[in-house]
Design a protein that fits this description.
It is built from two helices and 44 strands. By secondary structure, it is mainly beta. Keywords: WD repeat.
């Protein structure tokens, strides 16, 4: 990777090259624990969506660019079961609520990154929570399915944090695991471990009808998921792997599809009610569509197709209705991935992952000393590492006729010392760490959770696809940015995924050398030189290659400003460790899948 020459570099560097420490991080050096996605909820205005995880954290994403806007850390022993958006008439913005399996209903602040109010369910674990249908941009009711067999109703008031308990619907046998509102907002359907669907009148608090889901099994299947379509049709997913369509008025079975080998945990419907998606322990996402019968013309439900972007259980499906863009379908599950599908072109387009490296741990470099130090934070644990020191390989130690050592791009460098762990700190609080920072000299660490800010000192015993440079004096974009904006925008659009980090070269004399990285690639930009447009090679190789970097460019492209390199594995961190060295941390996604519980076993023919 070419950079401007410097007379005195940390590593002998007569040809202006940067030594890249490329670490395919082991679980010991950089532990990366990916939590399961338990629920997804899209804001009714389509601007953002939120995802809840089984480690108690909640992430909020932009609905257009899909980058993470806020991460609200969780705590030990708290698992998010559902999230919902609500808004009272006097509220200026939509408010985010979450329910947990310990029986709490929380209001979360995306500005303070913590819960600002908590309400007890008075019914044990909350397995499911759903907001009432939005009317004129207002949602003031939340319904919670509780472990004591009841459905609790809560009210949301303007300018008052939290939700207020209103009433409880009569209890039924077993746990209530799923619920859904009727589009008119006057009735609720619930299902649970008793194998029945209960239809409730919200105003009167009475049960209007009861539907038995099981057909022939001695033990009734659990009803894991429910949704109600615009015409009142009730759709259920159960423990037998069946998706069933019921007449909402009479409770009769309209259609039954057995497309899954295990429990159906999630359902989603299109706004017009003509399409339904389902998934669960069998991680295939199936599409059912309402079509007219060829003989009679009467509409009936048919199975169309399925896709399987997930490797493990899918636990949530939800539509994202964006005002100025095509609607999307979102899915998430035990593999920790958020996947996006086109709602209207589900059969024609492939799904895409929101990120190649979801739920990245907090990583920060201290380049003020040699060798550099790396801070790793995840959960309640902070780990401080000292990186290795690079030396020129003995096989390349020769020089030219004048005796000067020659350096070429791609030359291998050895490690004179391996990375070593300096400290590992686990906080006593049950709250997970929300933010942390490492001092420039690597001797002090600051960490903050919901309750307090901590400072630790080491004592020796022996982050859209855009980059803009602003002037510190005027606060306006620099002349380089204005001149190269078009070329820079086109360059960064070629970078796989959204930008996750920037790193300037740590030299006061020449601070204009910048490294930009996403989860799937990196780019070097020299702001002291012009940026020219470069069209990438769109030809696909005939065979798959296992090389971690993309195919090497032609020699004429070596050192070109704005050169882009694509990565095979997920990039967790890229940053300068000195004026002439940089660190690249990669993690194979297959390594993360091995840490999860095994998915549903499906026998393959011939094995």
């Amino acid at each position: 990777m070419k950079r401007p020459r410097e007379a005195a570099a940390d590593v002998p560097d007569a040809d202006g090259l940067t030594v890249l420490h490329r670490v395919r991080a082991s679980s010991k050096l950089v532990p990366w624990h990916v939590a399961a996605v338990t629920c997804i909820a899209a804001c009714p205005d389509g601007s953002v969506f939120a995802a809840g995880y089984d480690d108690g954290k909640v992430e909020v994403f932009d609905g257009a660019l899909f980058n993470c806007l806020a991460r609200i850390p969780g705590s030990d022993g708290s698992e998010i079961s559902s999230i919902a958006w609500a808004r009272a008439p006097r509220d200026a913005h939509w408010r985010l609520f979450a329910s947990t399996l310990d029986g709490s209903l929380l209001e979360l602040s995306c500005q303070q990154l913590q819960p600002i109010a908590a309400t007890d369910s008075f019914g044990g674990a909350i397995w499911c929570m759903r907001p009432a249908p939005a009317a004129a941009g207002v949602v003031t009711q939340l319904a919670a399915a509780c472990g004591d067999g009841s459905v609790k109703l809560f009210a949301v008031h303007g300018a008052v944090a939290g939700a207020e308990y209103v009433k409880s619907l009569p209890r039924v046998e077993g746990n209530v695991l799923a619920l859904a509102w009727h589009p008119d907002g006057r009735s609720i359907v619930s299902g649970g471990s008793d194998g029945c669907i209960h239809c409730w009148d919200v105003q009167r608090g009475t049960e209007r009808q009861r539907i038995t889901v099981g057909t022939s099994s001695a033990v009734p299947p659990c009803v894991w998921s429910l949704t109600v379509l615009r015409d009142g049709t009730i759709v259920s997913g159960d423990g037998d792997g069946a998706v069933q369509f019921w007449d909402g008025r009479f409770g009769t079975l309209l259609a039954r599809h057995q497309q899954f080998a295990a429990d159906v945990l999630a359902l989603a419907a299109s706004p017009d009610g003509a399409s339904v998606w389902a998934s669960g322990v069998d991680p295939r996402v199936a599409l059912f569509h309402l079509v007219p019968d060829k003989a009679t013309g009467a509409p009936h439900w048919v199975f169309l197709d399925r896709k399987q972007p997930h490797t493990h259980d899918v636990r949530s499906l939800t539509p994202l209705l964006r005002p100025d863009s095509d609607p999307l379908l979102l899915s998430g599950g035990n593999d920790g991935q958020l996947v996006l599908y086109s709602l209207e072109r589900f059969l024609k387009e492939h799904p895409t992952r929101q990120s190649k490296s979801p739920q990245r741990p907090l990583l920060q470099l201290a380049a003020g000393l040699a060798p550099a130090r790396l801070l790793h934070v995840q959960g309640r644990t902070l780990s401080l590492w000292q990186l290795g020191r690079a030396v020129r390989s003995q096989a390349l130690a020769g020089g030219d006729a004048a005796g000067a050592a020659k350096h070429f791009e791609g030359d291998h460098w050895d490690l004179a010392a391996l990375p070593s762990q300096l400290a590992s700190i686990t906080t006593r609080s049950s709250s997970h760490i929300a933010a942390a920072a490492l001092s420039p000299d690597g001797s002090a660490v600051a960490a903050a959770d919901r309750g307090r800010l901590r400072l630790f000192r080491l004592v020796a015993a022996a982050a859209a696809a855009d980059v803009t440079a602003y002037s510190a004096e005027t606060g306006m974009p620099t002349q380089w940015t204005l001149k190269n904006h078009s070329a820079l925008a086109e360059l960064l659009q070629q970078l796989p995924g959204s930008i996750q980090g920037l790193s300037f070269r740590p030299t006061p004399a020449e601070p204009l050398s910048l490294l930009v990285h996403s989860a799937g690639g990196l780019c070097h930009i020299d702001m002291a030189a012009g940026l020219s447009l470069h069209k990438p090679d769109t030809k696909q190789p005939r065979t798959k290659r296992n090389a971690a970097l993309s195919k090497p460019e032609a020699c004429s492209e070596l050192g070109r400003n704005g050169r882009l390199l694509k990565l095979q594995h997920s990039c967790l961190l890229l940053g300068h460790t000195s004026a002439s060295e940089a660190l690249l941390l990669e993690k194979p996604w297959a390594e993360q899948l091995q840490t999860l519980l095994p998915p549903l076993y499906r026998h393959r023919y011939g094995t």
